[in-house]
Amino acid sequence: MPEGARSDAPVTPKLNEGDIEDTTSAINAAPDSFWLASIEKDASALLDLVRESVDRGRILLVGYGFGGIVIKKAIFLANTNNEYNGIAVQVDRLVFFSTPHRDGEKKEWERLIKNIIQATDIQSSSRLPEIFFGLFRSSSQISQDFYKSAIKCPIANFIEKPDVSAAKQIMDEGKFADNMDGVESGPEKELQNFTLHEIATLDHLETLRTVFGLKQTCSNGLTSGQHDYGAICDYKYLLHRAALDNNLEAFTALRNLSENISEANDEGMTPLHMAAAGGSTSIISHLLGKCTIEHELINIKASSLLDEPDNKQRTPLIMAASMGHEEATKLLLQSGANISTQDDTGKTVLHYGALKYLIAVEDFISSDLLSVLDKDGRTALHIAASSGNSSLTSKTVDVLKKESRFEEAGKLEIVLYLLTERYVHPSIGWEGRLPICQAAVGGHLEIVRTLLRDEGTIKQADRDKKMALHHACDSGMHEVAELLLLNHANVEAKDWDGETPLHKAARKGRINVINLLLEFKANIHSRSSKEETPLHMAVTHPEAVKSLLKAGADPNPVNKERRTPLHCAVLQESWQSAVCLHQNAADPYKIDSEKQLPLSYAIAKDHLATVKEFVKDHEASLDLLAIMSEAIKYAAFTVFEYFMSLVHTTANNFHESQKARLLHEAAVGGSREILDLLLQSGIDANLRQNGSSALHLAAQNGYEEYVQKLINFGAKVDARDDENRTPLHLAAQQNEDETVKILLGAGSEINAQDDDSITPIYLASEFGAHRVLQVFFEYNPDMNIATLSQGWTPLHASIDGGHRRATRLLLGAGADPNMVAHDGWTPLHLAAFEKNAGAVKILLGHGADPTLTTNKGDTVLHLAVGQFGVGVIKELLEHGAEKYINDRGEANDTALHLALKSSDCNVELQLLIEHGADIDLRSSEELSTLMLATMARDVEKLNLLLSANITSRENPKWQLDDLIPAYKKATALYRQDVTGNPEKEDSKYRDIINALLDKEPKLQGMEWPRNQT
User: Fold this and answer.
1) Using alpha carbons only, what angle is made at residue 784 by residues 749 and 889, rounded to the nearest 5 degrees?
2) Residue 63: strand pairing partners
3) Facing residues of 59 across strands?
4) CA 438/CA 214 separation, integer angstroms
5) Which residue of 179, 509, 719, 1013 sits 20 to 30 Å from the alpha carbon of 19, by its own alpha carbon?
């Protein structure tokens, strides 16, 4: 612990270089505060660490390398309101040593910080969470808006470079103001009343001065463990912060600590940049020597920084203008700032002035500045036009006239007129819409007539390939459209969407324009890029539909989605157009790409009048069942009710199977009103279809209201489907606890068995339906009924499904953990076979017997070894597996023999040997364990055996006679392996031979004859 630190302060374990992945020891060493290392190589290890340790103390997330799993998990924790699996998590410290390099990482960085601040409620906290966001001089890669918001957050420190060891030391020494116990009194003692956050927010100026005074006087009364606040909390960032916030008093307090006024932050911005960005005119005036401060220690005049660019080539003037600060821009211009400088986007201050409506820049307009293009090819005039800045445009006209550029000025006056009349939409760039197009949109006939004097204007199109005629027709400007047509505008011209002027007029319902275009022989059947005709476009305007149909438009063309105008009219609920189309031969039975009819869409909208219109000529041949089924599908009660009445008033009374179909469909997809109507009409609630009742379907889908209604109308609560399942079976399987309560309350048999003797509680266990299980326990179910096919109980089912919570609930309610299935398997055997160590632990804790064997003679330990279940083996050994560790199984082998015969089973083998497995027992083939390891060519297994004691012998050491057979076998196999294959000199049998010789040198020369293997 550092000298001077309080003894009751929580101690954070040091994270040494080798501990980055080994976090368990660090946790055990400090139960109150622990590390979560960034285990990028193994995400599951991190998740397991959280699951097992999240309730042991405060979490410290340490991120090495951006974009790693820790970042994602930190965001997850923040987004889930600091809860992980229902356990409240206190994110005490978050330390990230990283630099965002790519755009995607920058966004993750910004989102992470914002989410953590929001989730941990840092700003309202009375204490300072020790949060270090290591930006490492990378703030130039973070957006300006984020930078401004970030430095307003309680960031304790901006670490200047990725010095991990220094950061660890800071963390190890605890809070910044904790080391003041050695100070009797004075301003230094007052520091313990303030957190670094409170100092950093510049709200305590006297304390601020004291802190930075400590840089020179830290030896006066301070302990040797006191931090150098000036070094840790680099004052240049606070200086920039004060400039941004226009806090002149704090700024001067900080300025007196340094003579270097030109020092830039990570983005290359000086304090003058920051003052300009914040519109801080008092700071700007102070920096430029235009005002002085009483008692100021240092005379400041930073005029040399006036045109200094930052990393993005932004001068303070461009910064002020881009942020829209009128007074700051004016002040910098009056101070002689260079107006022609361009930033990295190519914009000058005139560009930003045009965008932000800054009056200050208008007096500096010149033809040279007007000709400057940004990287998007726009001049300041382009931006003024697109943003509707008529004031700057008017000034530009005056400049052009003064320079005798009368032709340009004349054209610009037309633009100015359009701007003044607000016919330039702010969202449309000037380069994207030509003057004649703007005039056409506004209906300015004389302006259009004037512009048409220029040869070729009539053929000009904007960036969307729209001509003036497109715009005039879209806006309904009849006279302009006529003038353009008389000047030979192309009536069939298509824009980027393949739409003609007639498409535009039809979409907006411009009747007069439609008729005008038809007079000029516009193609009424023209197709857009989506294969839509003008009639498709017109469906929301009934009068336009009538005009086009009257002119001969085809009522049944299909677009790319195979939809006719009738489809479109119904989908857009233009009912008058739909009726008009139908009365003009539009087919309501055409199928679109979704296999839907216009009639289907009308039913889905529950618009009875339109449905009746569509079917009025086909009533004799109507498929009422299909229409009513469609109405149920879309919960269209009005349509359903009408056709239900037709069923009762005509000879089309349905058969029982048809009634069953409607009832079943209503039970799963209709509205409550439709189900009511069917039941009240006298339909039997127990009608069956496809082997089940409507109650089965409603229960399976968890429709509690439908379940109750069917029961009220006489549905049998224990009706059986074709697999002999009751509705309770299906509800239990889906974890529909409310439905289960209704069924049980209505008398459903809780122990009902299907054809395989499966009960509802079995299905709930199999599918992990823990809410249903808790309901069942109130009704005393039989939890040990076994299935006919396998003899499995609900406990078997929960293990097989991997549902530990269900397993706990069943055992807690009294389920027998030692029930034996037909093959002799208990739930414990099943858990071991599936390598489910958690379930094994639960079962053993509730009395499961690990000594029971299967019908083939295998113990639980045999199954665990056979499945490489290291975790299961550990649990079994911790619960006394030594008692049966040498039992033989199905093939008369012990668990040790199985481990020796299996590849990649060395960890399991070591565990067995360490817990007393007899290495002297021979296998089912009468082979020694040494021989098994030799034949497996596994030197690691062999060494484990050679280094172990033979516990069953009086002399536990291996004897020469024990080793000879394995040595002879190894040498013979080696010769066989390499004979005729010199490249196989790396044979694994050579390693076996060497291991045996290391154990017993006397084996040398005891090989078998060359012809013997």
Assistant:
1) 155
2) 96
3) 34, 91
4) 67
5) 179
